[in-house]
Amino acid sequence: MKFFVDTAEIDEIRDLAATGLLDGVTTNPSLIHKSGRDFMEVTKEICGIVDGPVSAEVVALDHETMMKEAEVLRKIADNVCIKVPLTVDGLKTCKALAEDGTMVNVTLCFSANQALLAAKAGATFISPFVGRHDDNGFDGMDLIRDIRLIYDNYLFDTEILVASVRHTTHVLESAKIGADVMTAPPKVIHGLFKHVLTDKGIEGFLKDWEKTGQTIG
What we know:
The protein has 217 residues and is α/β, with parallel strands linked by helices. The protein contains eleven helices and eight strands. Strand 4 (80-85), helix 5 and strand 5 form a beta-alpha-beta unit.
């Protein structure tokens, strides 16, 4: 499973990239606003930190303007992935960009039917929002299972990018189902390292080592 981080905070991206575990970055207008920085500037900086896809989202709602915005965004760097909403115009844009060899992340997916449409439009990634799905009384993991089944049935190349990840269990269940990618806030990714028994074991080892009176080096 590929690990993307869902943030526009440069320091957090650098920190995770240093682990060697980071495969890409997803951003959106809300995350850019939270960073307080210029959209183009921060996207370019992120693209220089990671080699993998960096999702940059269009804000237009009509196909023609989406294409104009996409043309600007994909000039930022070779690893920019254009992010479009799952609407009729968004999928028109997806198809046009995909045919031109541009990576496309179709976002705001809440049904397997929508995911099927995105795959037929040539999406590189489909982003089902599991956390928001859970918030509205549905099981986000059931959505991932349905999409995985459909994509496997028809051998679609579109990768399932699990988004709106709220906790480490979302990551675990997505991996068990066979999702291709997950994107999560830095806090959730850091939570994957944590286990009380690991912390307890380290504490015990250090206490015993101190008793030996030895040093390494």
